[in-house]
Write a structure and sequence with these properties.
By secondary structure, the protein is α/β, with parallel strands linked by helices. It folds into 2 domains: about 15-135, Four Helix Bundle (Hemerythrin (Met), subunit A); about 145-360, 3-Layer(aba) Sandwich (Rossmann fold). Helices cover about 40% and strands about 15% of the residues. The strands form 4 sheets. A 7-stranded mixed β-sheet has the order 6-5-4-7-10-15-16, sandwiched between helices. The chain has a 4-stranded mixed β-sheet with strand order 11-8-9-14, covered by helices on one side. A 3-stranded antiparallel β-sheet has the order 1-2-3, covered by helices on one side. Helix 1 runs antiparallel to helix 2 (about 55-75), helix 3 packs antiparallel against helix 4 and helix 4 runs antiparallel to helix 5 (about 120-155). The chain binds 5-S-methyl-1-O-phosphono-5-thio-D-ribulose. 5-S-methyl-1-O-phosphono-5-thio-D-ribulose binds near residues 53, 172, 182 and 246.
Length: about 375
């Protein structure tokens, strides 16, 4: 695999001292509008409403939101208490992606470690920590992309120049990270070497696949076709999919993977038809304190998001009879036994994942 940086034209965040701008992903692909966050609560709202989404990116947005909040509060009485409350609100904005809690914890540790310093110095410490957190995510994406592409090339075998067709669910791309993406980073690395076609599950009801994955891959010139979620199993059965690759919001110590609802069905279909099922995620997504998927908190969102087409758009359209409710568990858990490989920036875990993940976590 070549070592030139992969790069992407897709950048969903722009942040620095006193500045946090987020690409409003609810408006894509119709328009590219940006949200200027002025407070930590602006970042909380952007995360809750899915204006910014994807496990690694909500962590990075939270880190910058807390740096911003420290600068805003620096002249106020009750600086420490107000900042700590904002940190708690950010950590609670969404429950499933452990990256969010991990980011807030990193910022808390930095804030408390600088307790003896002036307020200006503490603000600078938080800004430096957010910058580092963002850069680490960017670097992790690059490393993951190469490990994943190498693993897939080896697993798929045959002519190294032959075309590959990858199926993905949700958006685990540049729009979900500070870099080239997790699953889509692997796609980018593979596409730099050989012809790659991507089938993007539409990913109802927020359409991360149809709206976001298709938009970002098309922007970077990677061949992508949108697939109704309900067609994934039959396409996998037909032999037209070389491998499925997805991201993750939280991976338990035993290798169970929480990701966007619908992922589990893709994994089942892959196993039934002998197609490799691969998860790509940075180590900030691993949660060794969570023994298995049963302990992963699953976010349930408002059923109205299922009943309406384009719920956050200018003219939402109802697709169901009035008065009929809908259930919306936003994530599901794929058992470790169905996951052929978990790709991280430190390397690849293959079954048994409990040992593989512990080994990867212990690496520097
Ligand atoms: O609800 P979302 O859009 O935040 O869900 C995102 C996913 O499920 C992604 O697959 C996951 O966060 C990995 S992103 C690199």
């Amino acid at each position: 695999m070549k070592s030139t940086p992969l790069g992407t034209r897709v950048v969903p965040i722009s942040a620095g001292p006193g500045r946090l701008r987020l690409l409003d992903q609810r408006r894509l692909p119709r328009e590219e509008t940006w949200i200027d966050c002025l407070t930590a609560d602006d970042a909380v709202e952007a995360i809750r409403s899915l204006a910014v989404r994807g496990a690694p990116l909500i962590g990075v947005a939270a880190a910058w939101g807390l740096a911003l909040e420290a600068r805003r509060l620096a002249r106020n009485a009750g600086f420490d208490a107000s900042w700590e409350e904002a940190a708690s609100r950010l950590a609670a904005a969404r429950p499933t992606a452990v990256n969010l809690a991990a980011a807030v914890e990193r910022m808390r540790n930095a804030f408390r470690a600088a307790a003896g310093e002036t307020r200006a110095a503490r603000v600078a410490v938080l800004e430096a920590e957010a910058e580092r957190f963002e850069a680490e995510d960017r670097d992790a994406c690059e490393a993951m992309a190469r490990h994943g592409a190498d693993w897939l090339a080896q697993r798929l075998g045959g002519d190294p120049d032959s075309p590959v067709t990858l199926l993905t669910h949700c958006n685990a791309g540049a729009l979900a990270t500070a870099g080239v993406g997790t699953a889509l980073g692997v796609v980018r690395a593979l596409a730099a070497e050989r012809p790659v076609t991507v089938f993007a599950d539409e990913t109802r009801p927020f359409w991360q696949g149809a709206r976001l994955t298709a938009w970002e891959l098309a922007k970077d010139g990677i061949d992508v076709t949108i697939l109704p979620d309900v067609a994934a199993a039959s396409l996998i059965a037909s032999g037209r999919v070389s491998a499925a690759i997805v991201g993750a919001d939280r991976i338990a110590a035993n290798g169970d993977v929480a990701n966007k609802v619908g992922t589990y069905g893709v994994a089942l279909a892959c196993r039934a038809h002998g197609v490799p099922f691969v998860v790509a995620a940075p180590r900030t997504t691993l949660d060794p304190a969570c023994p298995s998927g049963a302990q992963i908190p699953i976010e349930w969102r408002d059923g109205a998001e299922v009943l309406l087409l384009d719920p956050s758009g200018d003219s939402p359209l109802s697709v169901a009879p009035a008065g009929v409710p809908a259930l919306y568990p936003a994530f599901d858990v794929t058992p470790a036994a169905l996951v052929d490989a978990i790709v991280t920036e430190a390397g690849v875990s293959v079954s048994p994942h409990a040992e593989g993940l512990a080994r990867l976590l212990a690496l520097p």
